[in-house]
Amino acid sequence: MSVSGMALKIRESTESDTFDLAGANVATIRANVSAAFAEPFPISHMVRITFLTGGGKLCRSKYDDGAARAIAASLREHGFEEDHGASCVPECAGLYKAQHDTGKNLRTMVVFPRIMESIGDSGGGDED
Fold first, then answer.
1. Do 106 and 52 meet the contact criterion of CB atoms below 8 Å apart?
2. Would you give the end-to-end CA distance of the chain in angstroms?
3. Percentages of the chain per state (helix, strand, coil), in multiples of 5
4. Do the beta carbons of residue 1 and residue 10 sit within 8 Å?
5. What residues contact residue 78 under an 8 Å CB cut-off, 6+ apart?
6. Other CB atoms closer than 10 Å to residue 48's CB: what's the count?
7. What are 65-85's pLDDT values in tens digits?
């Protein structure tokens, strides 16, 4: 799979990172999120990918009203599930959650990507 632009920057994340979606339209957001999360990240530790999707009256006009919905829809197409209790641990791979940072008055979507370690770790102790 060939990815470029923001999708490539997301996939290259080896530490928790934040991406500001100010000025991005729904089509661009969906394309980037879909390309970035279609395959597991080539890392063995969990990272948190945070997308800034909106905010209070001072920055609201910078963000597309459908940004958070576009991220969620793209993630669901790749089997991700929403979980408000998700955290930055390998067991939360494939989960996302919406958050509102009341201190900074920003709305975010936090994604915990699938990682290489989380694929294929479902068995091993069931031999008879």
1. yes
2. 39
3. 30, 25, 45
4. no
5. 34, 37, 38
6. 17
7. 999 999 999 999 999 999 999
